[in-house]
Amino acid sequence: MTGFLLLLALILLAAWLLLRLRRPATAPAKAPKPPRPFAAVAIRGTNAACCRAKALAGERFLASKPPELPLPGCDASSCECYFVHYDDRRKDHDRRSPYNVNTAGAGTGVFEAERRQGIDRRRAS
Fold first, then answer.
1. Is 75 in contact with 53 (CB distance < 8 Å)?
2. Which residue of 22, 44, 56, 87 is most buried, as measured by CB atoms within 10 A?
3. Please, are residues 15 and 7 in contact by the beta-carbon 8 Å criterion?
4. Looking at residue 100, what is its pLDDT?
5. Which of the four pLDDT bands, split at 50, 70 and 90, describes residue 99?
6. How many whole angstroms separate alpha carbon 101 and alpha carbon 107?
7. 86-96 pLDDT tens trace
8. Which residues contact 13 (CB under 8 A, 6 or more apart)?
9. Which is nearest to 50 in space by CA: 28, 77, 83?
10. Within the chain, how many helices (H) and strands (E) appear?
11. Per DSSP, which regions of 5-121 are E strands?
């Protein structure tokens, strides 16, 4: 009986060691997040926000260069403004279109077929 318990203890110890060795010591590294160079923030505040914060309502700033809170010239007794985060500084879709003369970047006319020939002038030869 003692031999059986000793054998069982050795089997359990060997199984525990195998499981311990197979498991990674550290958690696997997470994939790095892609850079978001145009991530943005906007300032929001309560109804008691200062005039400066109300004037900046809806304006987006690059998240890498946000204004400091409380804003310079804040006249509120206690600042209750906060940042709202966005993936992009642009508010709407990019409206430029080479096909419509009524949009920004217009005037390219009707696009029928590619007429350029030769290598791209921006590429190194």
1. no
2. 56
3. no
4. 58
5. low
6. 5
7. 887 776 665 55
8. none
9. 77
10. 2, 3
11. 40-44, 60-62, 82-86
